[in-house]
Amino acid sequence: MTPHELERYDKIGRSLDGLVPICWQKRALDVTLSAALILLFSPVFLAIFVALLLEGLLVPRHRGPFFLTEDRGSEGKIFHLPKFRIVRMDAFHDIRATQKYQHIKPMESDPANVTKVGAVLKTIYFDELPQLFSILKGDMSFVGPWPWPLEPYYEELEKGIFRKRLIRPGFTGLVQANKGIKDGPSEWVLDFAYIGFMHDERSGWAKLAFDLRVLTRSTKTVSEGRGL
User: Fold this and answer.
1) Which of 8, 30, 156, 183 could bridge to 161 as Cys pair (CB 3.0-4.6 Å)?
2) What does the longest C-alpha to C-alpha distance in the chain come to?
3) Rounded average pLDDT per 10-residue block, the chain, 228 residues
4) What is the Cα 190 distance to its own chain's centre?
5) In terms of DSSP bridges, do strands 170-172 and 141-143 run parallel, antiparallel, or are they unpaired?
6) Separation between Cα atoms, residue 17 and residue 154, nearest integer Å
7) Are 16 and 195 in contact (CB under 8 A)?
8) C-alpha R_g of the chain
9) Distance (Å, rounded) from C-alpha 146 to C-alpha 74?
10) From the CB of residue 171, how many other CB atoms can be counted at a distance below 10 Å?
């Protein structure tokens, strides 16, 4: 988006208070691409299961479930966001016992909390692969504002800020696609601009084309090591 378009769509997004419908072209992309990627990565899923199982057998304190989930907000509802477990369960339980609202992501930022297999998965972002099932189910989209944990999600709603409720959350979005750009637009501007565009644009095909551009830029961001 140009600076003028960002400003225009940002204003539109901030003025909304009702849900932005998902066009069928966007949903078709989500279903088709997520199903194809699940099929493509099925050997990777199997390899990860085996690796986690073997690590648990060899290192007892690294044992635990294959997945961890967190509650997130989606279009005014709550869904369970899954990911492969990359943290040690003893660290997970200790932190949760002392810090009620400690989320998984901050735990993963400390290498001492991460398992050996988890460190590899985190480096190549494969711990996020189970979210393909959330996209296929319709809890998420490939592109949209990143879904927040419930505490900050509700804090924004109480302040009358609806950016995380107005539209289906995404695996990636304008925020992630613009990572690493010096003096770039703020997260709020990018989230609201995406919402404003999806509300104001009448052509489902134009929305699809925009999502594809965001996905392309996000793929470049990951390949350059700037993360999601």
Assistant:
1) 156
2) 57
3) 93 94 96 98 97 94 92 88 93 75 78 94 93 96 93 90 93 88 86 96 97 92 65
4) 15
5) parallel
6) 15
7) yes
8) 18
9) 10
10) 22
